[in-house]
From TrEMBL:
InterPro entries in the cross-refs: DUF2938
Full protein name: DUF2938 domain-containing protein
One Pfam family cited in the UniProt record for this chain: DUF2938
Sorted UniProt keywords: Membrane, Transmembrane, Transmembrane helix
TM annotation in the entry: 5-27, 73-95, 102-122, 142-163
The organism of origin for this protein: Pseudomonas muyukensis
Amino acid sequence: MTTSILSLSIVLVGIGATLVMDLWTWLLKRLGVTTLNYAMIGRWAGHLLQGRWRHAAIGKAAPVRGELGWGWLIHYATGLAFALLLVAVAGQAWLRAPTLWPALLVGAVTVLVPLCVVQPALGAGYFAANTPAPLRGCLRSLATHCVFGLGLFLSAWALAWCLRG
């Protein structure tokens, strides 16, 4: 697989998986479940560029210009990085013949990023400890990241199918 085909494949799989995750969170919102507002990720990134890593409550921090757009950009860039991680772990051959378990495993493991990095930085604490229902929040994050893992598999499967045809 050439470097450009490999790169394009990773980008397509990452975008596809992130779209699957976004459909999942859209469904959760329709069911009345609170989900992450990506503007808060953009706000955090804006403050990070000014040297502030942690917040007591990101929602109370000063808004940052373009925070919603930045939040969505970071969300998709993270999806691409996680797709790259999957290919680095499973190998390029996985893209030609994707299997479910490596994708689900990477999806599940990536939940450590929000639980151990993002949530503490936003003020929710490690493993959502500063929220009213930490276990529920952790399980919801795990489910969302497993859906992302499923999206990695489905996107890679669809891409492999298209390339075979």
